[in-house]
Design brief:
482 residues, alpha/beta, five-stranded mixed β-sheet, two-stranded antiparallel ribbon, 20 helices, 7% strand
């Protein structure tokens, strides 16, 4: 029961794991930071990305054992998704006492498009999801007589998930609501949960304070778009619809109600809290609460089994039921296949770092300098440093590793202008057309000097970025390598 969803999750995670040999910018950050030394990573965390620090150190350890490129970068996420699928199945079984509910819930989790997406992401979100799934399974076994050691293990898992990403601590809120709604919870159980939750929050507090000082890094979050609001509404409607149908069919007591009491808060509360926090400052991004799909999978899985039970009373005969189940599975697979295939292409992410670095290398033949505008686009080439060999990063004053930053420290605007004025042929890596220009003084100098003193020799628009070759005069434009 646990193995089947786990194997499906692992197979989907390994299918096309290299994504045609490409990565996007967030994964590129993981890749290049994990290849720094431990002192360099710690120095970075003093200035930026403290919230991802534990993941960087784990990936650094993995690359120290096996520097396997893209498969090594994404394999932890694929394995974590498989583990999470198995744990969802185990949780469904424990709550419902029905093997079918466990298996179907685990399979629903494994095939969910968003889960598949982050199963092949070189970031921490799938690992967080696996730890929350483990904590949720542990939580369902914390009865009135549970020893203190089991509560400690539960708290340790929640803390580990929260250290990987702080918003995992919101799973505690969902578990707390489930405990509050449970008619079987004793005062000892509630007291143990309160003490465990308090200990987790206290242990997490230093990281929260540390990362809050770096909150400027998430200034790019602007709140959900119209499409994202529709997705959130659809997610909530599906969860609430499953809960309504299940309690309507089975009443408010029994195993089905137990599933709903835990699954519905886990599906909805973390997202609701982040959206509510947006009144002060937008912080909601769907991947931050990927683990909410655990709750949705339990609801959908239980509802599907209930639907199969109802259909079994109409469709008589084992063979007929097998045909009905098989046809339903084929229809679901056919509906999910186009989405699953698309997620394993470079077009599924916001940009294609690999293609941008390759094009920059092609256009740089004959160039003497490279310029990144805005400066944060330097991350596009940090994972592929050899592609721009022979060119000088004319705006850079201190490298990312030496400065303890993600993209390095650039020179003063006047110095950037002076260096650019001495260059003959420059490769420029910048945002795609339509992006608002940065108002930073250094960025304004870059744009001004390029527009005043250079002509465009070649320009290539790629997924999420643009590579342009500039020269002083048309006669200096080199023929790009093919």
């Amino acid at each position: 029961m646990v193995l089947a969803p786990a194997l499906v999750g692992l197979a989907l995670g390994l299918w096309g794991i290299t994504r045609q040999g490409t990565m996007w910018r967030d994964e590129s950050v993981t890749y290049q930071v994990a290849h720094r030394s431990v002192p360099e990573i710690v120095d970075l965390l003093r200035h930026a990305d403290a919230v991802h620090g534990l993941h960087y150190l784990l990936m650094h350890a993995l690359f120290g054992v096996w520097d396997g490129g893209l498969p090594a970068l994404r394999l932890p996420s694929a394995v974590a998704t498989a583990v999470a699928a198995g744990l969802v199945a185990a949780t469904g079984l424990r709550l419902s006492a029905r093997p079918a509910v466990g298996v179907v819930s685990g399979l629903v989790f494994a095939v969910t498009p968003e889960v598949q997406m982050y199963a092949q992401e070189g970031r921490s979100y799938a690992l967080v999801c696996a730890l929350v799934a483990l904590a949720t399974w542990q939580f369902t076994g914390l009865g009135p007589d549970a020893p203190v050691a089991r509560w400690c293990r539960y708290g340790a898992v929640v803390l580990a998930a929260s250290l990987l990403h702080e918003f995992a601590v919101l799973a505690l809120l969902a578990h707390g609501v489930a405990l509050l709604l449970s008619p079987d919870a004793t005062s000892r159980t509630r007291r143990c949960f309160a003490v465990t939750s308090g200990a987790v929050v206290v242990a997490l507090a230093p990281l929260v304070v540390w990362s809050t000082a770096q909150s400027g890094q998430v200034s790019w979050i602007s709140g959900p778009s119209l499409r994202e609001w529709c997705e959130i509404a659809g997610f909530a409607a599906l969860a609430l619809g499953c809960r309504w149908w299940l309690t309507r069919r089975a009443g408010r007591a029994g195993r089905t109600a137990t599933v709903c009491r835990l699954a519905l808060p886990l599906a909805l509360l973390p997202t609701a809290v982040l959206l509510s926090a947006g009144v002060h400052e937008p912080v909601y991004v769907d991947r931050y609460v990927l683990y909410s799909h655990i709750g949705l999978a339990l609801l959908v899985g239980t509802a599907l089994v209930r639907a199969a039970d109802a259909a079994g009373r109409v469709v008589r005969g084992r063979a007929a039921r097998a045909v009905a189940v098989g046809a339903s599975a084929l229809l679901c697979g056919a509906a999910l296949l186009p989405v699953s295939v698309q997620m394993r292409t470079p077009e599924s992410r916001k940009d294609d770092v690999t293609a941008i670095a390759e094009e920059a290398g092609r256009l740089s033949a004959g160039a003497d300098a490279v310029l990144f505008t805005p400066a944060r686009r330097r991350e596009w080439t940090l994972s592929y440093p050899g592609r721009l060999r022979g060119t000088t990063d004319i705006a850079l004053a201190r490298s990312p590793a030496a400065s303890g930053t993600l993209q390095g420290v650039e020179a003063a605007p006047t110095e950037i202008g002076r260096r650019l004025a001495l260059s003959r042929v420059v490769v420029v890596l910048g945002d795609p057309a339509g992006q608002p220009p940065d108002t930073d003084p250094g960025e304004r100098v870059k744009r001004h000097v390029l527009a005043r003193d250079f002509v465009v020799c070649a320009r290539t628009d790629l997924k999420g970025g643009r590579v342009t070759l500039h020269a002083r005069t048309v006669s200096l434009c080199p023929a790009p390598a093919r």
